[in-house]
Specification:
This protein is α/β, with parallel strands linked by helices. The protein has 27 helices and 22 strands. Strands 12-9-13-14-16-15 form a 6-stranded parallel β-sheet, sandwiched between helices. It has a 5-stranded parallel β-sheet with strand order 1-2-3-5-4, sandwiched between helices. A 5-stranded mixed β-sheet has the order 18-20-19-21-22, with helices on both faces. The longest helix has 27 residues, at 252-278.
């Protein structure tokens, strides 16, 4: 094992601030507060060089003031310790709508102007900064991709702490601060994320410093953690494995001193824990610090508006003074509020921050807005993926041998895990399902990360492991997103039915990637790769609750330049698809593949070509012989492919004169028109593959209407008949699952007979035979509990 990096001695030295330093910290904080408030209100007159007039105010007041002063306080004090201790740091800003604060601070430190030269650090740049906030053609109110130093948007709450831990994994020299809003702290994903410290390796990982910001209110209600007794909150946090450090108050001078002491105490404890693990070999899990920051909501803003209390109440959440353009009293109150920060002391005549304001700001890439860890593509290295030929299964004839596709992939992932042992930039995450999903070969290269207690019966637990398993899909997703956004690689393996738990999380990540692609300074990151297995057609043992193939529908609704969906039909095509996905950048790749024994259809060379095409004719399976097909049998997914080929086999035997074309689709987006998705087919390609006037019987892995939606504009759509999952499931036999959903081989043959002109009359006896086989199936499984021998023992060459 490579030697772990040593903790820089500077991170272990307490440096209590002097009165002069506290004065400059306050100046920085006031400047950030001024800029944050100005972004919500001002179109012009950014330095208040003349009395405020209605025309200086935005026509629509959008933004959130309530959390801003607390975020500014954290940013100011992080600046201090980063500079004093020589830290590399990243901050995840959890509270929703925290954009004004992080924008203000990145502008003050200069990182914003470096990315957006028009927003220069002077009066014109300040005016642009204020004008563009929540304004048409400007920037959002969240800490979005446009904000330097950000990896977390905070639009949907609950994921900040998971992202922070993901960023810290395999980043031993990094401090990741995470501000958690007390509204966010009520969400289920955030509650689950407190357990992430049981997986943080103090030797090879960085440190996470949670800062629980309790300002008392959500939009219109008090927050739970702000209202429970402090002893109860402390017991909760200690139970989670943290040692709380409290900072409470509303007097700025007192809070600055307390916050500085809290930061020093927390960082000293972190440094001591890392030294103990890295230098002394201490294996016990540390009790990591957490700062509990209690300051008023809307601190330093209007105390009262129209006779109602505002500061310290829910009324400060968004825009404390809403009638500024029309109400002269509100306008005067706004001007008084803004002037209370004494901007003439904070900015010179040209609008540049004065030396006192910048005294605490670190230099270069140590600035929070300039850290490369928040622009992970800058740090990304290509993944060492070995030759697929080393793992390919031999296929002399299609459909005669069987392999478990994910087990074959597991061997490849184990090699990748082994080849990244020194660089530690690849992780496999999943909710307690790595072995269940047949990927357990990775344990030969890395155990499962675990810092809690162990028992003799435990297997593969490893304090330094890079396989992450916890029964929280939210936490798995958050870990991986944080890991990818800071410049590393990974794969999320999950049961197909339960990946829906992160539907909204993947929404946010897709939006982040789409926006990032439009920012030239954001370097591409490794793709978010899902392996969905234990899928709908082989959840016959777990039953209806485990049967849902709809995640692909959800993903394909999203930005087409970002999303990709693959349904490899066998082991070699899975290897080829995985190779492509692991090499790709800035995508969300969804791969759906079975873990049960599956027929091998294509050799490795054939699989590469087929996957590159995304959809193609399997000539060996059809009976065209150069003639125009009478019918097209199409399929996407491993079980639908097997049933389609079994149906083609039956048609060869019973209707040998019929010209049958078999088309397999690996890349689902190929069905879309060329103008709707980068992988879409032209009409010319689509018509050549599926014909314009012949029946197409399409056996699909998921909900059948998705195929109709993807192909509805095609010339031959009226000839398209799709079979797929239609919510008919239970605990039953594997073949009974396809029969219940009319996806079985016998039903597909019946569909051909029903839809090819002229067959309904001359193939009546064949159709009746197929219907009788389905009847025999129902009787057989109820008597024997297993599938018909003719199904269970079928192979292509039988």
């Amino acid at each position: 094992m490579p030697e772990a990096p040593r903790q820089d001695s500077r991170t272990g030295s307490r440096s209590a601030p002097t009165d002069e330093e506290l004065r400059t910290l306050d100046a920085h904080w006031r400047a950030a507060n001024y800029l944050a408030a100005g972004q919500i209100y001002l179109l012009a007159n950014p330095l208040l060089t003349e009395p405020l007039r209605p025309e200086h105010i935005k026509p629509r007041l959008l933004g959130h003031w309530g959390t801003s002063p607390g975020l500014n306080l954290v940013h100011t004090h992080l600046n201090r310790v980063i500079k004093a201790r020589g830290l590399d740091a990243l901050c995840v800003w959890g509270p929703g709508h925290g954009g004004p604060s992080v924008l203000a601070n990145s502008w003050l430190e200069g990182s914003y102007s470096e990315k957006y030269p028009d927003a220069s650090r002077d009066a014109p740049g300040m005016e642009l900064l204020m004008r563009q906030f929540s304004f048409p053609g400007g920037v959002p109110s969240h800490v979005a991709p446009e904000v330097p130093g950000s990896i977390h948007e905070g639009g949907e709450l609950g994921y900040s702490l998971a992202h922070a831990y993901g960023a810290a994994l395999d980043n031993p020299g990094l401090l990741v601060a995470c501000v958690i809003g007390d509204g966010e702290a009520e969400t289920g994903p955030l509650a689950g994320s407190w357990h992430a410290n049981k997986f943080l390796d103090p030797v090879h990982d960085g440190a996470v410093l949670p800062i629980l910001h309790l300002n008392g209110y959500k939009i219109a209600n008090p927050t739970v953690l702000s209202r429970i007794p402090e002893e109860e909150l402390d017991a909760l946090l200690r139970g989670y494995g943290h040692e709380p450090i409290h900072v409470t108050g509303d007097d700025p001078a007192t809070v600055h001193r307390a916050m500085a002491e809290a930061m020093d105490t927390a960082l000293d404890r972190i440094a001591a824990a890392q030294r103990a693990a890295r230098e002394d070999g201490v294996a016990e899990r540390p009790s990591w610090p957490v700062i509990v920051l209690r300051t008023p909501k809307g601190w330093t803003g209007p105390a009262e508006v129209d006779g109602e209390p505002v500061e310290g109440t829910w009324r400060a959440h968004q825009v404390p003074l809403s009638g500024v353009r029309d109400n002269p009293d509100h306008l005067r109150q706004l001007e008084s509020w803004l002037r209370s920060y004494r901007p003439e002391e904070l900015f010179d005549a040209e609008g540049r921050p004065v030396a006192d304001v910048l005294a605490c700001v670190p230099e270069g890439t140590r600035r929070l807005g300039a850290t490369p860890h928040a622009n992970g593509g800058l740090l990304l290295h290509d993944l060492p993926i070995p030759s697929l030929d080393d793992f390919a299964v031999p296929v002399d004839k299609p459909g005669t041998t069987l392999h478990e596709p994910t087990r074959v992939l597991g061997d490849l992932l184990a090699r990748v895990m082994r080849d990244t042992a020194d660089r530690r930039d690849f992780r496999l995450v999943g909710p307690d399902e790595t072995a269940s999903n047949r990927l357990q070969a990775v344990y030969d290269a890395s155990g499962k990360a675990w810092q809690a207690g162990t028992l003799p019966v435990d297997e593969h637990l490893d304090r330094h492991g890079r396989v992450m398993e916890i029964l929280s899909e939210h936490l798995c997703q958050g870990w991986l997103e944080g890991y990818l956004l800071t410049g590393r690689h990974g794969l999320f393996s999950c049961y197909e039915a339960f990946v829906h738990i992160v539907d909204s999380m993947v929404n946010q990540h897709i939006k982040w990637l789409r926006t990032s692609r439009r920012l030239p300074w954001r370097a591409p990151i490794a793709s978010l790769n899902y392996l969905l297995t234990s899928h709908v057609w082989r959840q016959d043992h777990n039953g209806f609750s485990h049967q849902d193939p709809g995640f692909v529908d959800h993903v394909l609704n999203k930005s087409p330049e970002v999303v990709r969906v693959y349904l490899p039909p066998d082991a070699n095509t899975l290897l080829s698809v995985a190779d492509h996905a692991l090499r790709s950048r800035d995508y969300v790749n969804v791969i759906v593949a079975g873990k049960q024994p599956c027929f091998d259809w294509l050799s490795m060379d054939e699989a590469r070509v087929h996957c590159a095409r995304g959809a193609g004719i399997w000539e060996w399976a059809g009976t065209e012989d150069g003639a125009e097909p009478d019918v097209v049998l199409a399929c996407a997914g491993d079980v639908p492919t097997q049933e389609t080929l079994a149906a083609a086999h039956l048609l060869r035997r019973h209707l040998p004169e019929l010209s049958v074309r078999v088309v397999n689709v690996v890349d689902l987006a190929r069905l879309l028109p060329q103008g709707e998705h980068p992988h879409g087919m032209s009409d010319f390609e689509y018509d050549g593959l599926f014909t314009t006037d012949k029946p197409v019987i399409f056996a699909y892995h998921g909900y059948p209407w998705l195929i109709h939606r993807l192909a509805y504009r095609r010339t031959g759509h009226q000839n398209l008949h799709v079979r797929g999952y239609k919510e008919a499931g239970t605990t039953t036999t594997p073949f009974d699952m396809v029969v219940r959903n009319d996806l079985d081989r016998y039903r597909l043959v019946m569909d051909v007979i029903d839809r090819v002109p002229g067959l309904a009359v001359r193939a009546t006896a064949v159709r009746q035979r197929m219907a009788d086989a389905r009847t025999r199936h129902h009787a057989w499984i109820r008597e024997h509990g297993t599938d018909l021998p003719e199904v269970a023992e079928w192979s292509w060459n039988a």
